[in-house]
Amino acid sequence: MLLIRAIFAPAHYRPTTAWGPVQALLVTILAYVLARLVATYAVTEIWIATKQVTSAMTRQDLVISAILSASFWLSVDTLACVLLAGAAWLAARRGGMQATDVLALRMPLCGYRVLLLVGVLMAIGLAAELAFHFARYAALPARWGLMGWASIGRAAGWPLAVLSVGIVRPIAEELLFRGFLLPALARSRLGFWGAGLVTSALFAAAHYYLFTPDVLMLVGFFLGGLFLVWTLGVTGSLWVPMAIHMSYNLLALLWLRLWGPL
């Protein structure tokens, strides 16, 4: 029992925020929706402004060509995530609080043994998930899930995919879900793990438009979110789940680049 409590208790995480749980939840959802809408509009306007309009090409034609472009979607995703990261940082400063305290952007407070345990579990999880996807898609190549990112990466250019999916997205999602929202929910009756369940469900829902037909992928995002919540609890630092999140996305992109379908 003591071992279980030592492993699963949020020993080094102290939620600090000026936001109530309902307020923080509404702000999170609103920020996510608005960031994507603003980014989509901005990138569309930039796309149209940089294209040569001919008599045979209307504005509607340009919008359609933008939507069909892989670089368009990665650009929208990058800009939306930058806006989300900024929104989380500004919202965390409510009430005169330090954003770094609210978002738990501090050095890990645990010992090296806990970090070693986190690293080992991360390595096992990454290996298991990538092996699962390799076996699954090698047997029956799918049009959805990770394979969709392989197509987008090739069409838009892997550097842009690495910037968007591998770096900017993990930073923004960690700041918003586990940095800004989690402490507000954890201070309510939900407690730490109740807040973890809610934020992990929202984390999975945020990827619904990417993996709509793939229920297993969404379940994987939910479980992955819980693991990231655990790492935040046992280390007390958002830098740890952020580093894990970035590592997974970058390794997944590398796997797709090397062994994804042609």
> What is the number of domains?
1
Low-confidence blocks of residues: none
Mean pLDDT: 82
Helix run count: 11
* Number of strand segments: 0
Radius of gyration (CA) equals 20 Å
Q: Helicity, in percent? A: over 70%
Measured distance between first and last alpha carbons: 50 Å
Q: Which shape, going by the Cα principal axes?
A: globular
Order of helices and strands: HHHHHHHHHHH
Strand proportion: under 5%
The major β-sheet equals: none
Backbone structural class: mainly alpha
Summarize the structure.
The chain is an all-alpha fold and 262 residues long. It is built from eleven helices and no strands.
Task: Please provide a written account of the structure.
It contains 11 helices and no strands. The N and C termini lie far apart (50 Å). The chain has one domain (15-259). The protein is mainly alpha-helical and 262 residues long. Helix 4 (70-92) crosses helix 7 (146-156) and helix 9 (191-205) runs antiparallel to helix 10 (215-235). It has helices at residues 2-8, 21-50, 59-67, 70-92, 99-102, 112-139, 146-156, 158-186, 191-205, 215-235, 239-259. The longest helix is centred in the first third of the chain and has 30 residues, at 21-50. It is globular and about 65 Å long.
